[in-house]
Amino acid sequence: MTTIDNNLQQVMRRIAQACAAAGRDPAEVSLLAVSKTFGADAVAEAVAAGQRAFGENYIQEGVEKVAALRQLSPASLQWHCIGPIQSNKTRLVAEHFDWVHTVDRLKIAERLSTQRPEHLAPLQVCIQVNVDGGDTKSGVPPEEALALAQAVAKLPRLVVRGLMSIPDHAPDFEVQKELHLRAQRLFGQIKASGEPGLADFDTLSMGMTADLEAAIHAGATLVRVGTGIFGGRTYPAA
Ligand SMILES: *Cc1c(COP(=O)(O)O)cnc(C)c1O
User: Lower Cβ count inside 10 Å, N or C end of the chain?
Assistant: First the structure.
């Protein structure tokens, strides 16, 4: 068994234990393996261990990996863009990814919809929400999330699937859970809005290596785990 295989099993156990402790069905929580900064070989190892959904932050790096994996592995993979998107990168995202978690402006969503190729399924998107303030952070303020979700839902080549959040690192479980519950309450409100364009609103993307248990207790349906699977990252010098 490789290290990545081992790590994946361990993360799956953490998810199962958190679900048991929270009284949730583990089938409700999916695992996104965050492979940023790791090579296609590491992704291929995770694929061999059964993982199918991968998250990338840096668009160019992600696009190269999507192409490399097509050569390396016959398995059909799902690629999620989880990093910030500049206007000049929307075309690459629309052409190469299956999901985008970081929609926080209508203008970016409009470009993604226009640029999504006809032969591909609609792009699945989450609205990124900034649950803990901070003007410099990505994500819409909570009070603007419903209006943005409604506007994005009208775009023909996008399907609004839910909310995503990246709260600041908090030291303990209760604080982590309280921040995740803010996203969960908003998720519930938007779901309950009964908006016809939001019929597929079913994904709450939150929780990473350090706080996946708290996120699962707060209702996450998708956790994004990098370090716990691939190990520590070294960032190339800018
Ligand atoms: C890097 C990253 C992750 C994974 O973080 P880890 O702490 O390595 O698990 C999850 N979500 C986003 C948006 C990230 O940028």
Answer: C
The ligand 1 atom at the shortest distance from the C-alpha of residue 227 is 8
The response to whether residue 229 sits with its C-beta less than 6 Å from ligand 1 reads no
159-205 confidence digits (pLDDT tens): 999 999 999 888 899 999 999 999 999 999 999 998 889 999 999 99
Ligand 1 centroid – CA 219 distance (Å): 18
Give, for ligand 1, the residue of 10, 81, 208 to mutate: max count of ligand atoms closer than 8 Å to Cβ.
208
d(CA 165, CA 170): 14
Domains of the chain (ranges, CATH numbers)? 3-230 (3.20.20.10)
Measure 196 CA to ligand 1 centroid, in angstroms. Answer: 32
